[in-house]
Amino acid sequence: MSGLWRITCALWSAPLTPADAVRFDKGSVRRSGLPILDEVSAVVPRGGCTVIVGPNGAGKTTLLLALLGEVPYRGRIRMGTGGQGATSAPRIGYVPQRIALDRGMPLTVTEFLALGEQVRPLWLGVRRDVRRKAHDLLRLVRAPHLADRRLGALSGGETQRVLLALALQREPDLLVLDEPSAGVDFEGEHLFCELLEELRARRGFTQLMVSHDLGMVAHHATHVICLKRRVVAQGAPAEVLPPETLNALFGLHMGLIHGAAGPPACRPAGCGAAHGEKCRD
């Protein structure tokens, strides 16, 4: 792999302001010679909820994967240090859209959360302290009733709560979520967004997520990155989602009401999925 394509996460190569959690500097990704991301420069403010929006194929998930070191890219991604005066790299928690699992596997939610916490094989039992920590995490995400449920029997919304609990296991400074409400009904999405706001206020992490739901963005985001292979606009939702920006992103203004008001769930024309269905990156 050439030097242009090696993964470069230069945490201390240049100073960041205390208000910055992440800064993307001219990040580019190509696959089979085709540009997926083209010199993306954007900032994720510390402590807020930054949402990446854009049409199918805009590179939203790819940008998250570049941040996580899962795809090679050209350019630079700089991250601030952990919170509370820490000098080390930030801890990152990740909530994917879904996980591939054998739904017939007899694995309970508590056992699933214990996988990264103990070396002892699960068939010998979950250690008492590990079980207690798993149950504490489930209470944190308002899902203590799922502790003894089989993982493969959970609904989409229940699975997302368990994945959120798993991401919180490391007490992250940066929580990254890739369309966490995909496959979840409106009520479940609303409750999940409220839960994230509550957790962010209590724990002080920075939240970075992908969403196609413009109504959710208008109500819950503190910062928006409008992406269409390149950054079209970024800033506060009321400032960067006027009709002109939506036209540039999706080719059709969806009627998002500016400011705090707006429809509870508004899917852009470029998404092509009904509410609750997965949108493609």
Key phrases:
single chain; 281 residues; alpha/beta; three-stranded antiparallel beta sheet; 9 strands; 27% helix; globular; disordered N terminus
Notes on the structure:
The chain contains eight helices and nine strands. By secondary structure, the chain is α/β, with parallel strands linked by helices. A hairpin with a 1-residue loop joins strand 8 (about 225-230) and strand 9.
How is the secondary structure organized here?
Layout: E1 20-31, E2 34-45, E3 49-53, H1 60-67, E4 74-79, E5 92-95, H2 109-114, H3 128-140, H4 156-167, E6 174-178, H5 186-203, E7 206-210, H6 214-220, E8 223-228, E9 230-235, H7 237-240, H8 243-250
Parallel strand pairs: 3-7, 3-8, 5-6, 6-7
Antiparallel strand pairs: 1-2, 1-4, 8-9
Low-confidence stretches: 1-14, 255-270, 272-278
Number of strands: 9
- Per DSSP, the total helix count is 8
In N-to-C order, the SSE pattern is: EEEHEEHHHEHEHEEHH
As laid out across the biggest beta sheet, the strand order is: 5-6-7-3-8-9
